[in-house]
UniProtKB/TrEMBL annotation:
<dbReference type="InterPro" id="IPR014710">
    <property type="entry name" value="RmlC-like_jellyroll"/>
</dbReference>
<protein>
    <recommendedName>
        <fullName>Cyclic nucleotide-binding domain-containing protein</fullName>
    </recommendedName>
</protein>
<dbReference type="InterPro" id="IPR018490">
    <property type="entry name" value="cNMP-bd_dom_sf"/>
</dbReference>
<feature type="domain" description="Cyclic nucleotide-binding">
    <location>
        <begin position="1"/>
        <end position="54"/>
    </location>
</feature>
<dbReference type="Pfam" id="PF00027">
    <property type="entry name" value="cNMP_binding"/>
</dbReference>
<dbReference type="InterPro" id="IPR000595">
    <property type="entry name" value="cNMP-bd_dom"/>
</dbReference>
């Protein structure tokens, strides 16, 4: 549909439309437009313009630019646990602005587990980082572990804080660098594991798909979420004060990379190994018989708390 802006606001046509192939068009006169479509179209545009006036991203835009943008944009609602963007779902050419609710970015972390003489070593398949760990646990899916800590009010994004894990190895393990850690052992078995990592949480006022790295990631609604979708080409066309490039840099800076997530994943595994040994040592010193096991804890609680070890 085109030409509706001039009819609604009583202004000259903003563009000239030229056909490139044979076309069949439905033409509606102004009288028919006013009686049939005007109220519906104007209500949708007014709602979008109201949302744009509430977001600080569009403060530098004049009214005419917002009117033009409202004709190209749309709003959409998502239910909890519904995928908003990713896995061939959503509109990759649109920028999403959260106007209500919260959502999270979940990364599909692919790791190769290599067992060398009884010691499990881990390699990140979708990145260049290689780390080792002696943990014998296997986590099938990880959620709600890497939620952000500090609210970044400027862009509505809560920042993810990376743990200090400079000491990558514990116990009797030795650190080896590069690919040689996985090629020098004479006998080894390999398998691939997939872990779903909750990277960060996005709240009202946040935006995503501006151009930040979303490879192997998906955005999922955690509560009933309402988003404003604006074409990215229009966003970049009206890039006053270079704001959208700064937003993109902000997101890339505060959303962790796959290597950072993998480092934190290794840190978590080492801590679980330490916690498992500590609990076993404490239980071994107790003389009172205790038949209670971790299996008596509901599975939903174990999954939420990240408990995947057997203390029995």
């Amino acid at each position: 549909m085109f030409g509706e802006i001039a009819l609604l606001h009583g202004i000259a046509r903003l563009a000239t439309i030229t056909t490139t192939t044979p076309c069949e068009l439905l033409m509606i006169k102004k009288e028919d437009f006013d009686s049939v479509l005007k109220e519906t179209v104007l209500k949708a545009w007014t709602e979008i313009q109201k949302i744009m006036n509430e977001l600080s991203y569009f403060k530098s835009w004049d009214s005419m630019t917002k009117i033009e943008c409202s004709t190209l944009s749309r709003t959409k609602s998502f239910a909890p646990e519904e995928t908003i963007l990713g896995d061939d779902i959503g509109s990759p050419t649109f920028v999403y602005f959260i106007t209500k609710g919260t959502c999270c970015i979940i990364e599909n972390l692919e790791v190769m587990v290599i067992n060398v003489k009884g010691i499990e070593k881990y390699r990140l398949l979708n990145g260049e980082a290689v780390q080792t760990d002696g943990s014998e646990d296997t986590v099938s899916a990880i959620f709600d572990k890497y939620l952000t800590k500090d609210l970044k009010s400027e862009f509505g994004l809560r920042d993810w804080r990376k743990d200090d894990s400079s000491d990558k190895l514990i116990g009797s393990m030795t650190q080896t660098g590069g690919m040689s850690a996985f090629s020098s052992a004479p006998s080894k078995t390999m398998r691939t594991e997939t872990h779903f990592i909750n990277v960060c949480e996005l709240r009202k006022g946040a935006c995503f798909n501006v151009g930040e790295n979303l490879q192997r990631r998906r955005v999922v609604a955690t509560t009933p979420t309402h988003c404003l979708l604006v074409p990215r080409y229009w966003i970049m066309k009206n890039n006053s004060d270079n704001i959208w490039n700064r937003v993109q840099q902000f997101l890339n800076k505060h959303i962790p990379t796959s290597e950072q997530i993998f480092d934190n994943f290794i840190h978590e595994r080492k801590f679980k190994r330490y916690r498992k040994g500590l609990v076993k040592d404490l239980l071994a010193e107790k003389k009172v018989a205790n038949t209670n096991t971790i299996h008596n804890v509901p599975y939903s609680i174990r999954l939420k708390e990240g408990v995947d070890v057997d203390y029995s």
